[in-house]
Amino acid sequence: MITMPETTVPTTPRGSRLPSWGRGVLWTALAVVMLTVTADLTGLPSITASSTVQAGVQLAVPILLAGLGGLWAERAGVVNIGLEGMMILGTWGAAWAGYHWGPVAAVIGGAVLGALGGLLHAVATVSFGVNHIVSGVAINLLGAGVAKYLSTLIFFPVSHNPRQSPRVEPFDTYSAQPLAGWLADLEQQQRYVLSDVAGVLRGLVSGVSPLTMLTVVLLVASYLLLWHTRFGLRLRSCGENPVAAESLGVNVYRQKYLAVIVSGALAGLGGAAMVLAPGQNGYLENQTNGRGYIGLAAMIFGNWRPGGLLGGAALFGYSDGLQTLTNGKTVLGLFYGVALFCWVIMLVQLFRKRWIMAGVAGVSGLVLYGIYLAVDDLPTELTAYLPHIVTIVVLAASAQRLRMPAADGLIYRRGQGS
Amino acid sequence: MTALRGKLLPPVLAIAFSALLCTIALLISGGSPGSALAAMVTQVGKGTTAVDIVNSATIYYLIGIAVAIGFKMNLFNIGVEGQYRIGAVAGAIVGGSTNLPPVLEPLLIIVTAMVAGAAYAAIPAILKVTRGVSEVITTIMLNALSIGIIALLISQRAFGVLNGNNIGTRNVPQSGWIPGISLGEHGTIFGFVVIAILAGVGYWVMLNRTRFGFELRASGESPTAATAGGVNAKRMIVIAMLLSGAIAGLTALPELLGRDHTYTQISPQGYGFTGIAVALLGRNNPGGIAFGALLWAFLDQSAVSLDNVGVPREIVTIMQGAIVLSVVVSYEVIRRLELAAEQRRVGRQLAAAAGGAA
Amino acid sequence: MSSPPVTAGGATEHPAVVLTGITKRFPGVVANSDIALTVRRGEVHALCGENGAGKSTLMKILYGMQQPDEGTIEVDGEQVRFKSPAEAIKAGIGMVHQHFMLADNLTVLENVVLGAESLHGIGRRARARVAELAGRTGLRVDPDVLIEQLGVADRQRVEILKVLYRGAKIIILDEPTAVLVPQEVDELFDTLRGMREQGFTFLFISHKLDEVRAIADSVTVIRRGTTVGTADPKSVTSRQLAEMMVGSELPSPETRDSTVTDRAVLTVAGLRLSAEDGSGRPVLDEIDLAVHAGEVVGIAGVEGNGQTELVEAIMGMRHADSGKVLLVDRDGKINDLTGQGTLKRREAGIGYVPEDRHRHGLLLTQSLWFNRILGFQTRKPTSTGRWLDVEGARADTRRIVERFDVRTPGIEVPAAALSGGNQQKLIVGRELSGEPVLLIASHPTRGVDVGAQALIWEQIKQARAEGLAVLLVSADLDELIGLSDTIKVMLRGRLVADADPATVTPEDLGSAMTGAGVAGGESE
């Protein structure tokens, strides 16, 4: 009987939109198609070579774990720029435990040391109300310092190098046989398009470390936990409106502590993943080289969602893999691919009648294509920083459509609502 | 003076706490905290250590101020690391390829370095105001990228020359050097210390006596109130970032113009993070940053003595990290306590006044 | 130990809530002192008192958000001590806060079950339970919409659903009508009456006496932190209640003589502004407005209908899509402010009292004189352009403290140390300095004590008499009617009706604010 003059009707055109998993599939397919086309048109097969993709996966794992750590903390409202420091602690912890007791211990050791870093961040930001960025930066300094000290103290006598640990036994890797073998055949046949797709898929299913599988499990588990359980609801409510959450009997401090500690543990796992990565053989000073920050960027790119984070990590991992394994020419080939991508966006935007966006995309595509035509090779000094450049470009392109948790980064004091 | 107590107590607490932490770390690893401290303190009197401390502090002070300009308005320019190195390499390249008379030559180098530092800081500033990208991430990425850019610039394909087995820029001509203050066997203090002091004084005046300083502080305290008060947030971000980058550009010049005269692959890195630490320690105040810079320089320079007493000198990095973390915590706690105390005091005084009037 | 024997009104059962001797001190103030309150089961018990009398503190104590320094709480005859809201909830107490405690980016269902997941999970059973409660009480809301898409009345329903979901039998409503228009208030009261029949007990906090008389079964008045007495709303008059609340004559916002001139100071033409969410939905739609020298133009409207945006667009804090803003200064020079920044607009002679003084008006940890400079950083007497004039700022702050009766021990204390009323007086004093031609005042007396309210009204009237043009936005309809020379009603981003404050009643305004009265055009 009661009719409200201001009753709001949800106006989102839900029916016309794909569910989020559908969009994920679409984007993945699109990415594979773009890469395939680029590889064929530029005559640069390493763009879709299984080795590139495989390296990309391995490099994406630490980024994904760090980003997942960022997701946990920021969904609870704590900005965690200290991921890098926690990751560094994780590398030391993994190397130390791994050297003594093998790879499984390394995983645990990395997570524990990372969690300690997270605990420190939680104490500073949650209990003492320090600015989250300030505390994060301090933890990065402290993490680097502690790892350096402990490395000198404990690794030096064994490895005779203060910057390096003794060799740590990595995990065995697994391939999904017979699928991987079959894809390998296909890739080697050099068939148009088909071989490229096979290369990408083979890179995904062969040489997979248990840690990679664990990472995938953690990603899915985080999604289910954060979005489909009461624990997750409480945790997210702390990132959206902690005052309301507390008024409903949610222990905001405890949720935030838990989230930030888990965040640190995940970052530490990311560190362990670096220590255990093939060809690493243990702890190395400055090994993380800013991957904690890139993980954070991947999470922002992913709009504080696990699916988007996966996309971001894949992007950064792939570009890292490409620059590690190939030369400036191949990286340049990617410009061509991105130009194609820009033009696809332009078409989509034209279709949606968003003229300005379409114009921007079209011009960006032209500029990239121009660079591709004009330059022969990219200096290797710069291609090493491809992931960093990609981070900046991607954030600049996407920052405005993002929505972070409403109370992210705000200092919350218990009883603040009163 | 409660205000003074609020300023001095946090760093004292933080240093005490960090010292305690390091003591425990040392005891666990079987070292002797007492002898370590004694070694570090006596080291100051030895050789050129005292002068080295002043010289390092000069550098730390400049970059600390660069950081503080941004921090004062909650603009987290983590990118001073990249900005100072880009500034230095630009200054070195220009200095190495020109030969103006004295005074003009160093001036040219200084201006070049500041412009280059500011230009590199302009990227995150522009991205922030036009695209809303957090400056924290972009500056961190640009720090990494700066390594690549510098490697490219001083490669032999570009401006680099081979000097022994080290690649670097061409030497700055003697007319571009800034003479130091020689203290004989104790070493030579960089002449640039004068410029650092001037920068500090300028920073104080800017903060406390200019409209720009007011707007900077207002933006840091409450961006919303600043906007309502007519402060143009975007303009502030750009100016503060450029200024921060320009001051950061000065950082490596004491070494470039006073000692090394060339910028090479192995020129010192990492001052950026020291700058952040020093700014946090000094709570973005010109006096506090000076104190922080000297403390940091003391820890860095005296650490060599630890090897003599069988303590890994890396303990100092733990000490430094712990100081930063505990100082930000104690500043926050004491700020809160003081504000509550102030509110109580005002309440009491008004109640007393009302009682007296009634 | 000294729980006094309580005799409930004839019945054998215990009263729902008994508060005895509650005292709560904050730094420098005693918020509650020796409060006694008895609430019978199944009644709507109103708690009255002016702003700052200590009503909210008392309710926070009952809800476990704060702990009393002295005194006892009994619920259903048992003495309790709540250390947190969770414990109060367990005892069957629920609270609907004045400022909604909702997470915008979560759905209605998520907001309702948050913190009470153990009752029915977060899935299908929870949904069924919410639907059942909604059916029983008439509080219908789509459980799957995000809160950010809801209007104020719907949000309030969610708030009430939240406490019902937790099994609350005793519900505290903290100024529930402050954000509602009269028609919505009536609907709320209907809901409350229905729920009272079902045995719910309500503690209704308000300072609107007619509403109290309309809904309450009994009323307790609080003044300066202590209970003055309990009355039967059926027999007591609003006048008597008001005198219990204030202890003396009520201040009145009314202005006597018209000082309106025909010189338009502010002219807004065709102002349009789109929502920030990128949907292109207009939040301001073709606004035309003129404010003359010596005139107070009041803007009435339910919160969220574009008043905030209008003010911020005129101040240059938001960039309008189209439209003109012109300001005529004292010498008759026309300044086209369209496209200018906030500072330029302030320099042209606009003073601005923002609706949220903590977010937009003050730098809380800075000294009073530092706050004096804000907005005046380019003008005398606080600045000479590029350089600050610290001494000038100090001197002028002393003048404001004196003239506007800002109660402070000095000008060096941080703004946060002052009470809300004194902070607001400082802001009004600041914004009236520098000879503004136009004052934009958003809710200028919201949340301030009666003394500050009277002073602020007096200062606005005085400035108006001297030829100041005033644009007044307020949710307090009495204030609007009392102060304004013209009232314009805002609805969904448009100015939909004009009203003459000499004849219009709050009910008429309420109709126009919800769109019900638009058909009638000019009310009365």
TrEMBL record, chain A:
Main location (coarse class): membrane
One Pfam family linked to the record: BPD_transp_2
Presence of keyword Membrane: yes
CDD domains recorded: TM_PBP1_transp_TpRbsC_like (cd06580)
Subcellular location(s) per record: Cell membrane
Membrane topology category: Multi-pass membrane protein
Transmembrane residue ranges: 24-47, 53-71, 78-99, 105-130, 137-158, 204-226, 257-277, 330-348, 355-373, 385-404
Transit peptide among keywords: no
Keywords of the record: Cell membrane, Membrane, Transmembrane, Transmembrane helix
One cellular-component annotation, GO: plasma membrane
Source organism, top-level taxon: Bacteria
Record InterPro entries: ABC_transp_permease (IPR001851)
GO molecular function: transmembrane transporter activity
Record's protein name: ABC transporter permease
Organism from which the protein derives: Kutzneria albida DSM 43870
Lineage, opening ranks: Bacteria, Bacillati, Actinomycetota, Actinomycetes, Pseudonocardiales
From TrEMBL, chain B:
Pfam family, one: BPD_transp_2
GO MF annotation, one: transmembrane transporter activity
Keyword presence, Endoplasmic reticulum: no
Highest taxon, organism lineage: Bacteria
Topological category with respect to the lipid bilayer: Multi-pass membrane protein
InterPro entries: ABC_transp_permease
Keywords linked to the UniProt accession: Cell membrane, Membrane, Transmembrane, Transmembrane helix
Membrane spanning residue stretches: 54-71, 83-101, 107-127, 136-154, 189-207, 236-253, 315-334
Classification via PANTHER family: ABC TRANSPORTER, PERMEASE PROTEIN, GUANOSINE ABC TRANSPORTER PERMEASE PROTEIN NUPP
Name of the featured protein: Sugar ABC transporter permease
Originating species: Kutzneria albida DSM 43870
UniProtKB/TrEMBL annotation, chain C:
Chief place where the protein resides: membrane
Full protein name: ABC transporter domain-containing protein
CDD domains named in the record: ABC_Carb_Monos_I (cd03216), ABC_Carb_Monos_II (cd03215)
Region (Disordered) location: 502-524
Membrane topology: Peripheral membrane protein
Any one GO molecular-function label of the UniProt entry: ATP hydrolysis activity
Keyword DNA-binding: no
Coiled coil (UniProt feature): none
